[in-house]
Design goal:
Protein FAM136A; DUF842_euk; elongated; 4 helices
């Protein structure tokens, strides 16, 4: 069940990234490449001038990628903390040393952990639209 939960989160995040790519990033990349090509068009410019020009062209894309990485990192951290909270609550009930659990206790522990982590995943998947909206707002501000 844990693997199913991971796949569910992965599909949701991948879907969000695909949407962001199609609605925002590709156009930004196109503009970045066109801008960079213009930088390279002038053969009389020095290498340093061309490099600085290309660097400026890449700025918004770099900022957008950094913002997306930060949002995804935050989501991952929050999800990990939620799952850790599940584990902590169960060890309070069953005891801290899982090696001392009976087979029945271990089975119950794992089942309850799976259910709790699945709830974490579902609640964090629900955050994806707001992440997508925040990212869109960020891109519009560039």
């Amino acid at each position: 069940m844990m693997e199913e939960t991971q796949q569910k989160v992965k599909r949701a995040v991948d879907g969000m990234i695909d949407t962001i790519d199609k609605t925002h990033l590709r156009e930004m990349q196109r503009k970045m490449f066109e801008c960079s090509a213009k930088c390279c068009a002038n053969n009389s410019s020095s290498r340093e001038v061309v490099e600085n020009c290309v660097e400026q062209c890449n700025g918004n894309m770099r900022k957008a990628q950094g913002q997306l990485e930060m949002e995804l990192g935050t989501l991952q951290q929050q999800l990990s903390r939620c799952a850790m909270g599940c584990y902590d609550e169960l060890t309070k009930k069953f005891g801290p040393d899982t090696s001392k659990y009976s087979q029945t206790q271990m089975t119950e522990f794992n089942e309850k952990l799976d259910v709790c982590v699945a709830k974490c995943a579902d609640s964090h998947i629900q955050l994806i639209p707001s992440i997508r909206d925040r990212f869109a707002k960020f891109v519009r501000s560039l």
